[in-house]
Design brief:
Blueprint (H helix, E strand, L loop, with lengths): L2 H15 L9 E4 L3 E6 L3 H5 L6 E3 L8 E4 L3 E5 L4 E2 L2 E5 L5 E5 L3 E3 L12 E4 L4 E3 L1
Antiparallel strand pairs: 1-10, 2-5, 2-9, 3-4, 5-7, 6-7, 7-8, 10-11
Length: 129
């Protein structure tokens, strides 16, 4: 993963634990039917806190807001798109929907051999292994 993505993924794991102390998280099993996806944003947009990609609670522009997406998301694979929105899995285990045009296949610019595996983590929540 490139440095920005690794930093964001690390922060997400700390946030997901609810504990900034040294709780050791590890992937315990892959999440079948899901794949890592990148947000379809430029590096500058990813660094700009005013640029957000909303996660909605349903596949509609009038669905309630359910949070903002991180740089890497866990998407249903194959991609499940309804009304232009792709189904994702939030890090709290709840489903969500993101505009499908805001997603692109996962790739690391700094390490072309890097891979990302959506996994169930040792704390019982989804994450990246």
């Amino acid at each position: 993963m490139n440095k920005l993505k690794m930093t964001m993924a690390s922060l997400l794991l700390v946030a997901a634990t609810g504990n900034a102390q040294a709780e050791y998280l590890k992937a315990v099993k892959p999440l079948d039917g899901y794949a890592c996806m990148d947000l379809n944003l430029t590096e500058a947009q990813l660094r700009d806190n005013s640029v957000t990609v909303p996660i909605l609670t349903g596949p509609s522009s009038d669905a309630p807001w359910g949070g903002n997406a991180s740089a890497i998301v866990i998407a249903r694979a194959p991609l499940h798109v309804v009304n232009g929105y792709a189904e994702i899995l939030k890090l709290d285990g709840q489903p969500g929907w993101i505009a499908a045009n805001k997603l692109k296949p996962y790739a690391s610019v700094s390490n072309p051999n890097a891979h990302c595996t959506p996994s169930m983590m040792s704390n019982g929540r989804p994450g990246f292994g």
